[in-house]
Write a structure and sequence with these properties.
The complex is a heterodimer of chains A (506) and B (337).
Chain A lengths: L2 H18 L10 E6 L17 H7 L4 E3 L5 E3 L2 E6 L6 E6 L13 H13 L4 H5 L3 E8 L2 E6 L6 H4 L10 H14 L7 E7 L3 E6 L12 E6 L3 H9 L5 E3 L3 H7 L5 E15 L10 H9 L3 H8 L28 H10 L8 E7 L7 H13 L3 E7 L2 H9 L6 E7 L9 H4 L14 H9 L4 H18 L2 E14 L2 E2 L14 E2 L1
Parallel strand pairs in A: 1-10, 1-11, 13-14, 13-15
Antiparallel strand pairs in A: 2-3, 4-5, 5-7, 6-7, 8-9, 9-10, 11-16, 12-15, 12-16, 17-18
Helix pairs in contact in A: 9-11
Chain B lengths: L1 H31 L15 H10 L6 H13 L13 H36 L6 H13 L2 H15 L22 H7 L3 H37 L3 H8 L4 H38 L5 H10 L3 H29 L1 H5 L1
Helix pairs in contact in B: 1-12, 4-8, 4-10, 5-8, 6-8, 6-10, 7-8, 8-10, 9-10, 10-11, 10-12, 11-12
Classes of the chains: A alpha+beta (506), B mainly alpha (337).
């Protein structure tokens, strides 16, 4: 090709790209692009409890309560609350009178009633499962309602700030119907949804009537990028300002980029090994203890999470209300071998088990499962690692057909032990795999205990008992990663939420 | 033309029968997987009665035959059921995502042809010459790189090292292209928005190229073999004896005949090209049915998996029908027999 031909092709290509390319960056950006790993399944926020999508829901919708960075449930759309009885069955809620939905209508107690009545009636909504004891909501004044529960429900205020508890606009929802709402959802959150391309992009615009004031960043675009390499490329090339859930090994490399800031931080999720009690092999407490003691948790943290993930011995995150300071189930291979011998197995007479793990549901899950299998094999528990989807695991767990151990992650932004231990080990729950019959009554007692100190102390004792019996093996407190443009203020939270409404350009 | 018409009609008829058989296979295979799609739908506090009620509501309680007949009856009316995970009709989900995938596949097919026709000719011309071994080796290397790896390589080179091409989504968010046909290029054209058209096209280049790069080496190989075979034909000798230039013989006589086996191959390989969209759409955040299928599988969304699988099958059948039809039109032997 001659030089003039090359030049012409180059100019044409350059012109095409610049014609099609985004507008040049302004001095003071008003737009923020976030590469995010997951899309929301649908725009009914009361229908899902999947933790990763909550950050998007929190930008568009708002909840009665809010779990802050100290994991305290604080009033949000609720102004105040009080129990009307000593039994914890009647809760009066007073709502703010300055909250607007995106269509300009005011939020009232009727909207709260509509949202939660809908959940009571529809078993397929996740909010139904989250507020299982709620029986009715009565509006007593435009901004006051009384919620009635079938049994004492001391933790309900936490649930009102947790997954799926978002207030929907009654009039709008009834006008457009469920399908119409899914197409054009509105909430009372800081951002309005202006464009949605499923599996690709969510475009939000700041809501000028947001009750906490219009957010600093006027336009937020969530680019849905499921592939982690593409999320790294997106932030590295400057095509996005923030990339969430970057592989930990990439964080160290991106930290050296002068234009970027990379963080690895612990948050309120735990990695645990779920053991099925209905498989005879696992009935031996010695075997379970041996498996527990054989895991070098610190080593796993070092190998896969830059040593930031904290080893845990209880079904609780460090310093959360269910944690017990000083309690530890240390890594001790020799003792593990001794315990395994009591169960009747050794390296010469090994036990063969299966360890299930998802692949890339949380960072380095499958790699960690392989490392654990290796550690177990060293004491005489020959472990085969098998990949499984979360859907398949839930199905096996729900039907009590899990025939091996499962490496699983459990998110709980509230940090409350009822949502850790109370859910993981409740034998009546479909996702508990250790079904200790006596625990049902124990949970009933604790979950209806209105004395907060007694409730938490009860859970701490139960956590110790669970660890000593190794009903479920806690491994690590999870870490989250985020990489962003250095010119952006990005607060991180131990709830793990990505909240663009709290971000600002420097 | 009567013969050609009868061939089309027969092919169309067999396509419908095949589609019906495929629907049975897809339905039965998915039902035989020992998984319960309700696992992701109901909250953990749901009782057995709740599970049974939802199972009846979703039509999952009868025998496989009963379930199939209910599903087929609805499918023939355009109702493929509702997605368990997305809580939307499957047809609505397919309607929004299928055009994106078709656009991607068609552009990648065009790129593959742009690469493989000159590539095939070049390899034919190199036959018995110095560069033949090198070209063959290069082709083997290209053949062994899967499309998803091409995707990652292209992102690193043209997205990060030399950031000249976008690699996320279908169009930059600064463009508002209303969906008329669902095909971004067509919609931008209908709107008369040239900038959006160019931007949408630039978004297609990398994912389409990734698919095309893994597809074109196969076409190159077949085209070269066909050209080599055609080179020994009597009419080629005659053309040469009549004094026509080698390029004239190649482009006017040989290529047209050598194109027929290539065309058949494209039809056969189209299914692989379509299947390749699963990973490519995921890597490039492209909102097509490949991406949708990955979500459906992850969440064991039975009605959606069924719907997408059926669409995949129908697309492959349709393309094969088009290729067969083209074959009839292009092949003088079939036309005159």
């Amino acid at each position: 090709m001659k030089i003039w031909q090359k030049t012409a092709v180059g100019l044409l290509f350059g012109a095409l790209v610049s014609m099609g390319g985004p507008a040049l960056a302004q001095d003071k950006p008003t737009e923020l692009k976030i590469a995010f790993p997951v899309d929301v399944p649908s725009w009914d926020p009361t229908a899902f409890t999947a933790p990763p999508g909550q950050s998007i829901f929190k930008a568009v919708f708002d909840s009665p309560m809010f779990v802050d960075d100290n994991q305290e449930a604080v009033p949000r759309l609720i102004k105040s609350y009080r129990w009307l009885d000593d039994e914890g069955k009647e809760l009066e809620l007073e709502f703010r009178d300055d909250v607007y939905f995106h269509d300009g209508s005011k939020m009232t107690a009727e909207d709260f009633k509509f949202t939660f009545d809908r959940a009571i009636q529809n078993k397929t909504l996740s909010l139904n499962g989250m507020m299982a004891t709620l029986t009715s909501v009565e509006v007593i004044e435009p901004y006051k309602a009384v919620a009635t529960f079938s049994i004492a429900s001391p933790t309900v205020l936490k649930y009102l700030g947790f997954l799926a508890a978002y207030i929907l606009p009654k009039d709008y929802f009834e006008k457009v119907g469920e399908a119409g709402f899914q197409k054009q959802p509105i909430g009372a959150g800081p951002y309005k949804l202006v464009d949605y391309q499923r599996g690709s992009r969510i475009t939000l615009e700041a809501f000028d009537k947001y009750w906490q004031g219009e957010p600093d960043i006027k336009r937020v675009i969530f680019e849905i990028v499921p592939d982690s390499s593409a999320r790294v490329a997106a932030v590295e090339s400057g095509r996005v300002d923030v990339s969430a859930q970057i592989p930990v090994r990439e964080v160290a490399r991106l930290e050296k980029n002068p234009k970027l800031e990379a963080k690895v931080y612990p948050y309120s999720e735990i990695y645990i090994l779920q053991i099925p009690s209905y498989v005879d092999t696992f009935q031996s407490v010695h075997l379970r203890r041996a498996m527990q003691m054989a895991i070098d948790k610190q080593g796993l943290s070092r190998a896969f999470y830059n040593n930031v993930a904290k080893p845990i011995s209880l079904l609780a995150t460090k310093d959360s209300p269910g944690d017990v300071a000083g309690f530890d189930t240390p890594f001790d291979r020799d003792k593990a071998i001794e315990e395994l011998a009591k169960a009747g197995y050794s390296k010469d007479k090994p036990l063969k088990i299966r360890l299930f793990s998802s692949n890339n549901t949380f960072p380095s899950d499958y790699d960690m499962a392989r490392a654990i299998a290796q550690m177990w094999s060293q004491i005489g528990v020959e472990t085969t690692v098998e990949e499984i989807t979360v859907a398949k695991y839930l199905e096996l767990s729900h039907s009590s057909k899990l025939d091996g151990v499962m490496l699983y992650s459990w998110a709980n932004a509230t940090g409350d032990p009822e949502i850790f231990t109370g859910r993981i080990l409740d034998p009546r729950m479909r996702f508990s795999t250790w079904k200790e019959p006596e625990l049902g009554d124990e949970f009933d007692r604790l979950n209806t205990q209105m004395d907060e100190e007694k409730r938490l102390e009860g859970y701490r004792q139960l956590n110790i008992k669970a660890a000593e019996n190794a009903w479920s093996i806690p491994v690590l407190q999870s870490v989250s990663t985020i990489v962003h443009n250095k010119d952006l203020n990005v607060p991180t939270y131990q709830t793990g939420y990505i909240l663009p409404q709290e971000y600002s350009w420097k | 033309m009567t013969l050609a018409f009868s061939l089309f009609a027969r092919r169309l008829g067999s396509m419908f029968v095949t589609a019906l058989c495929l629907s049975v296979v897809v339905f039965i295979v998915l039902r035989m997987i020992p998984s319960d799609p309700l696992a992701m739908l109901l909250p953990p506090s749901a009782t057995q009665a709740d599970i049974d009620a939802v199972r009846i509501e979703l039509g999952l309680n009868g025998t496989i035959f009963e379930q199939y007949m209910v599903w087929l009856g609805r499918a023939l009316q355009g109702d493929l059921g509702s997605s368990i995970y997305f809580r939307e009709p499957v047809t609505a989900l397919l309607a929004t995502t299928l055009p994106a995938t078709l656009e991607l596949v068609l552009v990648s097919l065009a790129i593959a042809l742009l690469i493989s026709i000159p590539g095939g000719i070049l390899l034919y011309k190199l036959e018995g010459r110095k560069g033949e071994m090198g070209a063959d080796f290069f082709l083997v290397v290209l053949l062994s790189i899967p499309s998803f790896l091409w995707g990652i390589i292209l992102i690193i080179v043209f997205g990060v090292m030399f950031p000249i091409l976008p690699f996320m989504g279908r169009v930059d968010p600064s463009f508002a292209v209303p969906s008329i046909t669902g095909f971004m290029l067509v919609d931008a054209l209908l709107q008369g928005d040239l900038r959006a058209l160019v931007d949408a096209f630039s978004h297609l280049i990398l994912p389409a190229l990734a698919l095309a790069l893994s597809f074109s080496p196969i076409i190159v190989r077949v085209l070269r073999s066909s050209l080599l075979e055609t080179a020994t034909e009597q009419y080629v000798m005659t053309a040469r004896l009549r004094g026509q230039s080698e390029w004239n013989v190649l482009l006017r006589h040989m290529l047209k005949n050598a194109a027929l086996p290539t065309l058949t191959l494209i039809g056969v390989q189209f299914g692989f090209l379509f299947g390749g969209t699963l990973l490519i759409e995921l890597i490039f955040s492209f909102p097509g049915i490949g991406n949708l299928m990955v979500q459906a599988i992850k969440n064991f969304d039975l009605p959606l998996i069924q719907g997408v699988a059926l669409v995949f099958c129908l697309m492959v059948l349709l393309i094969n029908f088009c290729v067969d039809s083209l074959y009839v039109v292009l092949n003088p032997r079939v036309k005159t027999s």
